[in-house]
Amino acid sequence: MEELVQADEEYVHTKLRAIIKNADFLLVSFAEAKDILGVKMNQDFVDEEELRVIEEEKFWSLMDWIQCKLEARRDHFDDLFRLLNLNFLSKKFLNEVVYSESLVKESMTCVHLILTNLLGRIPEECLHIRGESQFSTRSASEVNSPQIGDSSKALKEIEQKPSKLDQGHAETPEETQYVLDEARLILNKLTPDTFSELMEEFQQLPIYSELGLRRIIDLIFEKVNDDPDNSKMYANVCRMMAPYTITIPSTPNQSQQQTTTLEFHKFLLTRCEHEFEKHRQDDDVLVKLRQKLKDATTVTAKEEIAEETRLAEAKVRKEMFGNIKFIGELYMQKMLTDAIMHDCGMSLFKGNDNDFLECLCALLTIIGQDLELTKDEHHMSEFFGLIDKVIEEKSASPTICSVLENLMELRKNEWVPKPAQTQSL
Predict the structure, then answer these.
(1) How far apart are CA 387 and CA 330, in angstroms?
(2) Collapsed DSSP state (helix, strand, coil) of residue 332
(3) H-type helices in 69-172, by residue range?
(4) Cα distances (angstroms) measured from residue 210 to each of 129, 217, 230, 260, 277
(5) Angle, nearest 10°, between helix axes 354-371 and 398-412?
(6) Angle of helix 299-332 versus helix 354-371 axis, rounded to 10
(7) Hey, which of 137-151, 308-322, 340-354, 398-412 has the most confident mean pLDDT?
(8) For residue 172, what pLDDT is reported?
(9) Higher model confidence: residue 129 or residue 47?
(10) Which residues does 260 contact at the CB level (< 8 Å), separation at least 6?
(11) Measured between alpha carbons, how far is 323 from 315 in angstroms, rounded to an integer?
């Protein structure tokens, strides 16, 4: 009986390969393609190499079927891709062939499934924790199968995965890149309307190392710099990610009690401090460029250095204002302390620069009302005493003095902006 079953299985697989390699396959309907690509293969009667070959051929047939009538069939790609059994494909083929296809890269569902499968093959090394949720490890075959549902469910099916420090057991660059590509896809689609749905997926990203955690925070800051008007939304992303921790157990060379805990919140604070210090370094660079422009002796050199300086000033200014607004919104999300805000404000004031003073105004416009209600409200009196002195002595440009006066007026009005004046017709 077993021989008959095996013979039948071999016939099915031989027939399947003949069908998907036939040019007529490109003409079948979506329903027919789904039935053909959804044929399940029995690992008990077909050797591993044969399964790999069949699954590779299924992938290429799927790509050919989609490309044959791309515009009409594009929407079916995710549904058909789910029918592939990625477990039968090698990591090399998944990474270098499947993931290189633009249709795959553009699909959040496909990236989820590939990421799930690749990381599901890594042996367990440590415990991954999100907030107070703790997940148990599953095998790759349990985590990834053709029956996995939508992309959100796919990520939720990623249970316990290895968390590895960069020393000795670092994740491969490919594994880290998959996570970053997925994070970038989510952040690019993030809007106030899609926030709840996409943040659920973002919180389930399989981040397992210090490098991965740092790179995720790098991406958030990149989005802040590209889209500073949505700083509040990105601060809310950080608030949702604040409980995220990775607990890494001791290595054989350590005692059993020694563990390493990586906390999203602490890495975020470190990055905020770095960005704040970076603005001082950027200012030093600008000072050197301006001096270089002053020392230039030829018209051509002056023009080149002037353009370089202009672009550098624009870049630094945009990043500075974006990051300051973001820091203010993080404070509003209770992720930064009153003391940190006071230190930031005083540092900006002592910068003795028009841009720094304008940044201070932007920061106080966001946090002023809340900061004034804290036990350290005397800091606000200190800030505005210094601001009043700048206005009185006219130690800043007329434009900045006007901005400072508007800020003082806003405070007198209990932080309620005046309604915009309507122009008479």
Answers:
(1) 24
(2) helix
(3) 70-73, 77-81, 91-93, 102-105, 108-120, 140-143, 151-156
(4) 14, 11, 27, 10, 22
(5) 0
(6) 10
(7) 398-412
(8) 65
(9) 47
(10) 165, 247, 248
(11) 12
Residues 98 and 93: their CA atoms lie apart, in Å, by: 6
Q: Where would I find the H helices in 121-209? A: 140-143, 151-156, 173-189, 195-203
Contact indicator for 66, 104 with CB cutoff of 8 Å: no
Q: DSSP letter at 138?
A: -
Token pair, residue 151, equals: 């992309």
182-191 own/partner pairs: CB under 8 Å, 24+ apart: 182/108, 182/111, 182/112, 182/115, 183/216, 183/219, 184/219, 185/108, 185/111, 186/108, 187/219, 187/220, 187/223, 187/237, 190/233, 190/237, 191/233
pTM of the model: 0.58
Lowest-confidence pick of 215-224, 309-318, 356-365:
309-318
Give Cβ neighbours of residue 390 (< 8 Å, ≥ 6 apart).
357, 396, 401, 404
pLDDT one-digit tens code per residue, 325-350 = 999 999 999 999 888 888 888 888 88
The pLDDT tens digits of the residues spanning 241-279 come to 998 888 766 555 555 556 778 899 999 998 888 887 776
Tokens in use for 325? 């607004």
* Gyration radius of the chain's alpha carbons: 28
Mean pLDDT score across all residues of the chain: 77
Cα separation values, 414 from 114, 176, 343, 369, Å: 53, 48, 23, 8
Give me the sheet containing 133-134, strands edge to edge.
Answer: 133-134, 127-130, 244-248, 260-263
Cβ neighbour number for residue 317 with a 10 Å cutoff: 16
